[in-house]
Every structure is written in structure tokens, then in C-alpha cells.
Amino acid sequence: MRTPARILIVEDHRILREGLRSLLTTGREFEVVGEAQDGLAAIRSVERCHPDLVLMDLSMPKMDGLDAIGEIKRRVPDIKVLVLTVHKAEEYIYQSLSAGADGYLLKDATYDELKMAIATVLDGKPYISPSISGKLVEAFLQGSKSVPAVRSADTLTTRERQVVKLIAEGYKNKDIAGLLCISIKTVEKHRANVMRKLDLHNASAITAYALEQGIIDT
Question: Rounded to whole angstroms, how far apart are CA atoms 56 and 9?
């Protein structure tokens, strides 16, 4: 008998996590070995649960899916990551694949498509929802070779973007230090770098910037 594929569900809405767990455990193909509600928790769960595949949402608190994908792939290059999201825009697709995602599936997919996407990715092949793959081909044929940016914060490092997100979500330096497992002085340094690079002068300005750039949801 084939060993069930070990799946980690990363989704900030509890009811969706529970629904996915229920769907994925109806048969013998999959075993849900863990759940996480944000990108930081996802990284810890990967190291603890050792899944074969991470089912990854993009819009989450503390650390979004894009940053989490990059960090997970850096730590465990062979792990498979299938994005499951509502975002249809090309920039999210390009950014996800650039971060290391192995597949991109929309949340309006059927369960049969979800199973097929997981199986395809676990087999070492990329998977993109048919409803958006045509748009990507069309964009390529039209000469759209540049990758649109989800954010304009190109000068920020990954850690600086994480700090921006947490500041905008209302966390204080001490809280951020604990969440990111770094010192308060390091947080202060990142915060100062962000303010200098973006010419922002207080937490309110950072929050407004994060909202404008889509780093946090409205």
C-alpha cells in the first residue's frame, strides 16, 4: 500500500483549515500532519512535522505566504509547496513561483482539482490552475516578460519586509523580537533601515505604506 502524502495546511482562517483537513482526510491518499495560521508558524511546523507538501495561503498575518515560501525553500529545498489562494493577478503568480512555489491553485477549485494539483506537484511537475495558465501564456506571447511587483519595496530585505508587516499589524519592538527570534536591538536596526530607505518617520506612516503596498490587508 502506498504511504499517504504528508500535508501541512497553512491558512489563517480556521474554518477553511478545518474544511481542508476534512476533505484531505476522506481517503487514504493524504495525511494532514499539521496546520499553521501564518507564515512564521508554517516555518516552525515544517521543521517539526516534516511534511511532503505545504498547502500555502498567501495573505496571512505576521508573515505572508510569499516570504514563508522563500524561507521554507531555503531551509528545506526539496519540500513541495502548492499555493492555494484567491489571488488571480499575474504579479502574485510570478512572485510565488519566483519564491519557489511548485504550484498555484485558486480557492474556487474543486476537490478533484485540488487532489490532481497535489499529485502533480508531488510528482515533481509544476501545476497552475487552468483558469489562469492561459493568461500567463497570452502575456508571454504578447511580450510581457517583466515580472510585475506585488510591492514597490524592492529596496527592503526579506527581514525588513517582515518587520514592516508586524509594525503595521500593531506589534511593538519587543513583540516583534519574540516573533522573529531576534534581539530588540536588531528589530530597532531593521526599523531604522526601513524608515531611512522609505523616508517614513513613524509607525503610522509605516502602517499607511503597508496598506498602500498590499503588505497587510485593509
Answer: 7
- Which residues sit opposite 10 in a β-bridge? 36, 56
CA distance 218 to 39: 19
Residue carrying the nine cell digits 518587520? 163
Asked if 210 and 164 touch (Cβ cutoff 8 Å), the reply is yes
Residue type, 175: D
**Lowest mean pLDDT across 8-12, 178-182, 196-200:** 196-200
- Expressed in percent and rounded to 5, the helix, strand and coil fractions of the chain are 50, 15, 35
pLDDT digits (tens, 9 = 90+) for 166-196: 988 888 899 999 988 899 999 999 999 888 8
Nearest CA-CA partner of 103 in 123, 92, 117: 117
DSSP class per residue in 27-74: SSSEEEEEEESSHHHHHHHHHHH--SEEEE-SS-SSS-HHHHHHHHHH
Enumerate domains of the chain plus CATH numbers: 5-141 (3.40.50.2300), 158-213 (1.10.10.10)
Contact 128, 171 (CB under 8 A): no
Residue 119 banded pLDDT, cuts 50, 70, 90: very high
d(CA 128, CA 101): 10
Number of H helices and E strands in the chain, helices first, is 10, 6
